[in-house]
Amino acid sequence: MIDKDIRTLQEQPPDKALDRLEADVWAGVTAHRLARRTSRIIASCQVGVMVATLAGAAVAGAAASASAVSEHTVIGASGAELAPSTLLLGARP
After folding, report:
1. 74: which residues sit within 8 A by CB, 6+ positions away?
2. Which is higher by pLDDT, 86 or 72?
3. Is 71 within 8 Å of 93 (Cβ atoms)?
4. Torsion sign (Cα): 42, 43, 44, 48
5. 3-state class of 71 per DSSP?
6. Mean of the per-residue pLDDT values for the chain?
7. Which of 1, 15, 53, 79 is most enclosed, with most CB atoms within 10 A?
8. How far apart are alpha carbons 19 and 89 in whole angstroms?
9. DSSP E strand boundaries for 1-93
10. 18 or 38: which carries more pLDDT confidence?
11. H-helix or E-strand containing 88?
């Protein structure tokens, strides 16, 4: 029974043309390599942009905080001299 099925399959032509199979496989491998290389280049560029952005933000933040902090500044109390409790009690800085 199985021998008959095998002989029947051998007598039939293949469903798909196999003469271009190897070329198609290698074309797919080449396309995959190119896509992988391109994605690595794009990812490294994105990392570079992120590092530059973070470094710039750190420098700008340090410069802004150094120029904005005075000896009378209390962290978390911006505009404390204008608070109603300060103005009502008559305390002046």
Report:
1. 80
2. 86
3. no
4. positive
5. coil
6. 83
7. 53
8. 95
9. none
10. 38
11. helix 84-88
Q: With contact defined as beta carbons under 8 Å apart, do 44 and 36 qualify?
A: no
pTM score of the predicted model: 0.49
C-alpha span between 27 and 33 (Å, rounded): 10
Among all chains, which residue has been given the structure tokens 């410069």?
63
Instruction: Give 13-26 as a DSSP string.
Output: PPSS--TTHHHHHH
The whole-angstrom separation of Cα 1 and Cα 12 is: 17
22: left (phi over 0), alpha (psi -120 to 50) or beta: alpha
Residue 92: φ, ψ to 5°: -120, 140
Tokens coding 37: 């290389």
Mean per-residue pLDDT, 15-41:
93
56-68 pLDDT, tens digit per residue, is 999 998 888 777 6
- Any idea what DSSP says for residue 16? S
